[in-house]
Write a structure and sequence with these properties.
10-stranded antiparallel beta sheet; mainly beta; 10 strands; Lipocalin; 171 residues; 53% strand
Length: 171
Amino acid sequence: MRRALFISLTGTLVLTFASAQNPTNFSGVWKMDDSRSESAHQATPIGPVSLKISQTPGEFVIATRRSEADSSAVTTETLTCKLDGTDFINGGDSEVKIKSKAHWDGPKLVVETAREINGSTVTTHQVFELDREGKELTVQKTLTVQHGYQGTGQQKASSSGVDVYVKAGAE
């Protein structure tokens, strides 16, 4: 009985250590599954969205490519996050500065950003998670706009949703 318990505990410790040493690798090209993604069905629907993710032990880079539903115009936003939880400032001299940071929550990656748009701070909180086979990526996201209004009214607006992406190829 003691031997079985010892083997069970040892196995649990080894798996825990292995998962801590080998975080989830999100690298690849991901295409949004419109039928299962809330962003595709919002009041103003978005067009096709894809993610290109590059990941190293210290860095997470995500290029989001999207187009408007009724337009051929395509926009791409690239964010770099340090995986140690420290802030990283994205954007050149003429671009909006976007502060980003990331940290692990077990096998999930939490990415947070902050930027100024029209005098208001806009923050995002995204949780990236892969399915067991590594073929589907789920992103739970919350967007918050700090209005900064004075008085007793609502000072921030927030919305949340979940988007599902399928692996479209290697990085």
